[in-house]
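Predict the assembly for these two chains.
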Amino acid sequence: MKTEYKIIVDIIEENARVLDVGCDDGTLMESLKNDKNIDARGIEISKDKVQTCVSKGLTVIEGNAEFDLKQFPNDSFDYVVLGQTLQAFVNPEIVIRELLRVGKKAIVTIPNFGHWKVRLNLLFKGTMPITESLPNDWYNTPNIHMCTIKDFVKFSKVIGFKIFKSLALTNKNISNINNYNLFYKNLFAELGIFLIEK
Amino acid sequence: MDQWGGMQVLQFISNYPDKARTVVPIACTSSHSAQNIAFNELGRQAIASDHNWSEGKYLSNNTLPDKGLSVARMAAHITYLSKKGLQEKFGRKLQERDALKFGFDADFQIESYLRYQGSVFVDRFDANSYLYITRAMDYFDLVKQFDGNLSNAFKKTKAKFFIISFTSDWLYPTQENKDIVIALNAIGADVGFVEIKSDKGHDSFLLDVPDFLKTLKNFLDKSYLERK
């Protein structure tokens, strides 16, 4: 399993109510079922992936988080998970607010655009960075709102949500992010994982 | 189940919340739109305008309102298909002729096809039944039954729902199917949903649409058989 998913599964306690936004092929939902006895719900924009999830016996609705989270009442879930998709929304601010309305807590992961490879890429090549985790060209990328770990921390203050836990993933190593090491984590982490609350 | 069946499925689980493990409403709605009622009314008026209908007493008169019933079927049949599907299958192709005949016979293949659909329908369907069934569908309103809150219809059930709609179904469009999903999510019910890509309109549910059949099979295999 991806280290990212392992971290998320570790954060969530048994029998919690979980919504996986952009649940992809349901890998995380399956782990939650197996490891934490959680009957998670998923929402996924791709028809093919919804069908994959259905074939695994998972409860998934086809939809776009930007419009379809509205249907869930306040605090419907203990956790809402948003894995590496915040940057793909037209309005990430609305999505974050919706996540925190629908869920008591949210777990958001972001591919870190502050990573040194991305920075060098732009500095020396002078073109929009293309990396392993961000393989698209600027004109066909779904990732229209890239941000760095530092940006996300700043974002939390602007929007007004609390970050309870922030983890950095670097070469499959997990470490905590705090005010003192933010500069370095923002340079070396490939992924930021945040547990947030209203 | 499709629409008529779909309504029965919704009513059934609402009346008997613990009598089904899985519920799969396909291409349906919780109440007819004005457009749905309009098309049904067109069919009913076609039947009522047939002289042979005789205010419904055609059996004792030994006649059948075949003309009216077949026109009703022709109109309804159009609503089951999509514009794109019709265009691809028939376009402006002519029916067994090289040029237009400038009369009112079936010049176009689509005309001939509809007439055929109408004519075979009268052999297997009763006109008065058509009136009553379309009326029942128009009257069906699960939202109204539950004082404007569809969620309440499903409050008592623990069944696993899976809702399926089709991209080209303009009779019971995706949004109306989604309204059922929304009502279920509002009460934390176990509901999945997918919109299947198909050019075959509402009729997709009874035609060979591999994506649809595969999805339905996968759902039933996992959610019905394995939960036994």
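The beta strands of chain A are 18-21, 41-44, 59-62, 77-83, 103-111, 162-170, 173-176, 191-197. The helical segments of chain A are 3-11, 27-36, 47-55, 65-68, 92-102, 116-125, 149-159, 182-188.
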